[in-house]
Amino acid sequence: MEKRLRSSLQSSAEEFLSVATKLPLKSSKAAIKSSVSTLIKPSSDLISTLPLSLRESISRSISKFKSHSDSTSPLTPPAKRVRRSARNKRDDGDENGGQSTAEKLQVYTYVLHLCVFHPKNVFTVSDLLPAAQELHDNLILFESDSSLLSDIANLCEEWWKVGLLGKETLISQSLPVILSRSLTLKKKVDVHRVYSLREAFSLFDFEDESIEDLKHLLIRCMISPLYLKTEDGRKFIAFLFGLSMQLIKELCAMIKSQIPFGRKSMLEAYGEILFRGWKTVESERKDEIENGFLQELVEGAICASSPDLAASIRRILWGFVQQRTTEGVEKLIYRLAEPVVFRSLQVANSNVRQNALHLLLDLFPLENPDATKEAKDTLLEKQFFLLEKLLSDECPDVRVVAVEGICRTLHLFWEVVPSPTITKMITRIFDHMIYDACTEVRLSTVNGVIYLLGNPQSHEVLKVLLPKLGNLIVDSASVVRAAVADLLLLLNDIRNFHFHKVVPLDVLISALVDDQPVIARKITRLLVPSYFPSKVTEEEACKRVITLMKRSPTAGARFCEFVALEGASLRSLMRLFKIFIGLTVSSAKLSEEQIEGLLVASSHLCTVLAKDASLLAALKEELSAKNLKALFAVASSTRAQSSLCNIISLASPDAAGNLFEDCMGLIKKCSGLLDDTERQAEVRHAHKMIVSSGWFDEMFEDLVGFLQRAAHGCHAKFGIDLGKESTKSTTRTKKGSSTKISSKSKHGKGKKPSATGENRLLEDYALAVGFAWQIKDLLLSDSTRKAILGSRNLKRAYSALKVISEASILHSLQYEDLNTYPVSAYTALTLHMALHNAKAGVSGDPTQDNPSDLTLNHLLNCAYNLFKAENGNKKSGKCPSGSSPHTSKTPTDSSTRTKECRTGTSLTKHININAVKGLTSILKFIVDATAMDLVPRYQERCLTFTTENLRFVITNLNEISTAESQLFQDDLKDLIICLKSSFTYGAKLINVVLKAGEVSSLQQGAYSLANELFNLLVAVEEHLGYACAARFTTVVEPWLPDLALALRSNCLLEQKADEGSTLDSSENPTLHVPSWFHKLATIELCELSTGSAEETEHPNDFSAFKGLVETMSKLLGANAEILDAVGVTFLTGSLSALRSKNLDTVLGVLHFVCRKLIRAQDWKELKLMLASVEKVYCELEREADKEDISEDDRQKLNGAKTLLEPVWTSFIYEQGRHSMEEE
């Protein structure tokens, strides 16, 4: 290859170029370079002939390239870049298989480059310049070939850098190529290339219109992350400010447009770019940046509509603030800010004051470098005066900024601020701000002091004032208490500060006992160097912990809970554990509180130590059967026994011995367990010990025995059938339970007098609720769940819970003490039984009901009996009595725990909430069982019940409003939770049912249920107010798509019934007019009215309901098919309202459909709705033409017709006319 090149080069320039273009450039580059560099000497003829031949060859190739481009793509560029292989096929090669025209030009460019930069400079630049200009001037032709484009641009770039003759003529086309490449390839090296060519941009006339494309590329650099990230990129953009006044304006406009969305790094880069650009320009251009843009930024930082926007603007201004030592910057900042900042600090708008304060703190100290010392001092005094004044601002947000800002200012400028000013401002903070009513202000005060401590000059003053902060360790806000704990930890690391002089040790220990775990851990970290230091012997460290335990057993136990997390060694903790156990066993001179504290602390330590397998043997040795028995003997409190159970289950379950009765005594004390999380944790510890000791069956048998005793009481009181399982084992259970109770009586504080009658029933019921909670809790764990499902007492437990649940539901209206938790346990047990049978492959008679079927039928019967009892009460005005003949025997003695049965509307104040809770539990079971496909035969019945349940709830809401009774806050909270749950379960049931398939009965049920859910939303907002409805809507929004599909199902049903008519099934007018349609219509009419009296009839504007309807309308707009079907549902409702003479509803619903539901939607796609519109319009015409209607009714009918007129004219009447003409 090289030999051929050398031979051709000695022959002639044309021959050399011909041979070179026939060789692959990639493989022949080295040979070409060698030939040109070594063979061409100063005396060679090629010095004159090669440049001329190069120019002629380049001209011929470009002409050929142009003609080929014109013939193949005369109008538009190719949609995709043509591959090199395609270009090779496209161009005509020579007879010897020569390369494409583009590749020939690439070879010529390479040879030209070698000639220009020949090592011996044998060629004259003026001879080579025409060839280079030929390539440069036609760069735009080679856009489809990136390699050729790059080679030519590189040649022009190097020509410019070296400063060769005619470099200005090789810039106009090559520079945009290089700039565009840097923006598309996004490589740092390309950005550096652009920066190195920056001076070439000054050759362009930026006022000329032809420069627009290049200007767009330059402005793109302003938003390119690569340019903003790299040093060369930022310098290049700053250089652009010196090119043109118009370009400055466009660059500033681009920065302004990015401020609301820019990240912190981007905004800071803009600040640096602006500063550099400002430094490089002079006269008018500098004035444009200062007065045209920076002044606007200062005003925008003050008047910004949001704190985030103001902060973004300040980040850009910070580019100047941090360069304030540069000549002219301080004066510029003063000139821009002084006229507006001080004035804005005293305006009425708190947002403006806050923004101005932020800006002043960023610019502090604001001063005029040209002013006298007296003027500077006066200006500084003014700033301190305003800062102090803003500490008393009426807006808490301003006070927050003022406190933190003053502390930051003092931290930075302590040495230059006059001492009287420091004393005055700090005293104001410590005397007033720590008592501020706003939590954020108190928090900012503590954080500001923490920041101020970073300046050692402040320590002498703060040492005197810090004790005033001590009371914040018991602040009502946890964030403030946590900040104070952080402050104390910081003081602990500063010499000459003592945290206990800020917060007394007794207060600190009290906070350790009562505060949240996060804060308690920080306090523990603070106390570790004093009470469990690592620098003393283990014996000494343990003595200090014992001292803390004696001082406050509860605090000592809490200290031990977190001490391991703060770096204490396991060896020292093991030593401490042994000492605790030894002290507790001896129990000499220890109070009950100290024993409890030692056992709780030992439990915390054991939790950590048991995780290390190497320490288990030592733990078991310490927890011998003898020691455990002694420990239980001294553990008199429930918490102490629970902690001991936890220790045994973790470290030594085999040594539990005869402690079953002691643990069962702990488990049986479960009255009031639902609302006591601490007691729940204690019961779980007892469960854990019993399970680890292998006593689960005995424990579960005892639990079931107690449940059966409560079930027997419900049978005796209310006449509820016990069932076979309960009847068989009642006698045995009662005998066994009494034995267990008597054996544990020693752990009580005294025997209670025997209870009889109703008191005995309610006491047993309260215990049964606790046992029900325990069974449900045990079902959560895999191991205990398997044990329950495999227990021989499972059916007895199921039967007992069934009876108690029936009593809880049927008599929830009569007895406040009845709780719905047994229903939750009953349904949870049923679901697990059904799933267990399914997994185990238990297949019984398919005609027989499984547990889920039995429970479902039982609960639905209970619920319907409750509905009957409530309805009967409303008709008779008497107290509801359920379905039992024994219910009327309610005692009236005021000493009993039950409330007297109340009649009338006062009943809605408390009692119906219990009923709603019970029904919500049933609904949850229905949805769960349906979703798991455990009740496939009862889906229709489930839908019907859910609909009736919602009607019952809505009726109760109506009664609350009618009775004008005020719900207690706790009752209202419970009611809102139940309503949210009921809605969620109803919507989920719709989702499950619609996924099951298009069964007509199920679709009808889903449609009815969806309407009832909308009715519930309206009832909540109408009777409980907007605040409750707003919280309720957060639950509703995710289910709107399912509700829309359910509304659509009504249209699908009518299509199946009569394919030709979507509206003929509405013979019963009320069938298709849900009550929420009436409310929707009322809202629409109120919006149409112009202040008439009708507005006063509906003071509630139903904002939450309107918002949800609007959201649903937007969702429907995304799917024309579903919109079509749902629209038919609304039109069906309007026609039914028309037939029932409810013209307000007709007008309101049609207004909603035509103005909000469809909006810009193309009616041509809505075939079903067009058919419905035709029928509605015809019906409206018939009604409007009747003579026996009032003028008001006629006006409403004409208004409805006007709404449908455009649709009727454009899509129905015209189409019908055209079809008739075609016929």
From TrEMBL:
InterPro entries: ARM-like (IPR011989), ARM-type_fold (IPR016024), Condensin2_G2 (IPR024741). Residues 65-99, 727-756, 875-901 are annotated as: Disordered. Residues 731-752 have a biased composition (Basic residues). Pfam families: Condensin2nSMC (PF12422). It comes from the Eukaryota. Coiled coil: none annotated. Residues 886-895 have a biased composition (Polar residues). This is Condensin-2 complex subunit G2. The lineage of its organism: Eukaryota, Viridiplantae, Streptophyta, Embryophyta, Tracheophyta.
